[in-house]
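Handout, section B. The chain below has 137 residues.
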Amino acid sequence: MVKRTYLDSGVLLAACKGMDKLSLQAMRALDEPEREFLVSDAVWLEVMPKAIYERQRKEAAFYEAIFAAAEKLPWNLTTLDHAAGLAQQYGMAAMDAIHVAHALDARVDELLTAEKPGKPMFRTLGLAVRSIREDRA
């Protein structure tokens, strides 16, 4: 069964960092064949402009490959309004709330992040949030 998974930008950033434990966890998650990934315009905005500006061609190509294979979730005012409510309800940072709102509105099975467990996003009702920082058996 395919698991619809919203990717937080931190997962993509970690995957590009090299060969440390977090990078390996990110790459392992991205390689799971039973996953269907979703990314939002917010994810694009967090990773692509800097890679392009700094002429990091390999990094930008990596992100583009992920975006090409993933379902894209565009900006929309309904989701941004939802994010504002979530930020107030759970005490989330703005971009975390935007990612959570996109994930909830797209009815994903899971939001995959590189955030440390225990951040406010992990308290969101109705959304499974998993960190690549968690050890998996």
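Note. The beta strands are 3-7, 35-40, 71-73, 110-113, 129-131. Compare this with the example in section A.
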